[in-house]
Amino acid sequence: MADFNKILDAGDVDGGIINVVVEIPTGSSHKIEWNRELAVFELDRIDPQIFAKPCNYGFIPRTLDEDGDELDVLIITEYPLTTGIFLKAKVIGVMKFVDDGEVDDKIVVVPADDRNNGNAYNSLDDLPKQLINQLQFHFSHYKDLKKPGTTVVESWGDVAEAKDVIKDSIQRWKDM
């Protein structure tokens, strides 16, 4: 398997098109994570089915969030994507998130070339409000059965704020 942190970079952050690697498909309750040391995907745990991911989940190569992992992304597509693929994605916002006291932000993206919806999503305002509500609910409660109250969606940010979060994470990676 390719080491995504060696063969890819974060992409064109200023232009708003980044490289994203898929870890978890929409609808999966498998918590699959990229193991940076081994350069493989690892099944970390199986979450209760009621907390299956409401969207695809992945990371941006060569980034490091404040929690010590690559920067997470929420990938909005109509159908699930496959673990282990990468895509060029358009940044549309950021979910400011805290997990067990650590900053664990999630960049919200869509495929850069989505002909199914005519590339209609350019900001969080373009997404259905119900989807935003579902994402907020999921990430506010997905650990409630084991560690209640440890996850908090603090706010949602626009494309400019998302790009700043990505740039900070790229710098953290370089400083590692």
TrEMBL record:
This is Inorganic pyrophosphatase. Mg(2+) 2 binds at D72. GO terms for molecular function: inorganic diphosphate phosphatase activity; magnesium ion binding. Its cofactor is Mg(2+). Its main location: cytoplasm. It catalyses: diphosphate + H2O = 2 phosphate + H(+). Belongs to the PPase family. InterPro entries: Pyrophosphatase (IPR008162), Pyrophosphatase_sf (IPR036649). One of its GO terms (biological process) is phosphate-containing compound metabolic process. One of its GO terms (cellular component) is cytoplasm. Keywords: Cytoplasm, Hydrolase, Magnesium, Metal-binding. Mg(2+) 1 binds at D67, D72, D104. Homohexamer. It is found in: Cytoplasm. Substrate binds at K31, R45, Y57, Y142. Its EC number is 3.6.1.1. Catalyzes the hydrolysis of inorganic pyrophosphate (PPi) forming two phosphate ions.
